[in-house]
What we know:
- Chain A is mostly beta strands.
- Helix content of chain A is 0%, strand content 54%.
- Chain B is 0% helix and 49% strand.
- By secondary structure, chain B is mainly β.
Amino acid sequence: AQKITQTQPGMFVQEKEAVTLDCTYDTSDPSYGLFWYKQPSSGEMIFLIYQGSYDQQNATEGRYSLNFQKARKSANLVISASQLGDSAMYFCAMRGFNTNAGKSTFGDGTTLTVKP
Amino acid sequence: DGGITQSPKYLFRKEGQNVTLSCEQNLNHDAMYWYRQDPGQGLRLIYYSQIVNDFQKGDIAEGYSVSREKKESFPLTVTSAQKNPTAFYLCASIGGAATNTGELFFGEGSRLTVL
């Protein structure tokens, strides 16, 4: 089994500041991948960043970085220099490579609002 | 351009009726997925298929059925047995060498409302 927990239903951040969205996970698989997606009000799902459980370094993609702490089972998303267009719902997800291969599990999401 | 096409975008259904949501992909992906999203909530897995003519139940399969007769197509039927079918439905796929590590590609979703 695998489970994703996002404990922040809503977050506010001032434009141009950084924000951290929390994600903790649990899985029975020894190897797995962690993902973050963005869902604007239009409903489309946009992939942001990926982290493999075996990766030694934290993933970065432009203004997005993933703060991966394996021992704590956390995979927090950091958005630097927030922009108004970052206002959206953000989902953390995971996929196991063994028992849970092929099955992606999502958290309940965090709604981020960027204030001008 | 390659992608996933879901239709219809909006659908209204009377109670007791079955309805089928279409999902077609031209990405040559092996694995396809159906998720349900309720307002303000996360995605829950209904069914997934990793190869043609094979599929597995997800976490909330009751009241739904699927088929996978072609690699490109993975239709979802919402049956009258589904007690609360009003929701946003998302189809996704992944394939090739990226099956484990790659991201899901999503369609634009189908919004089903039961009257």
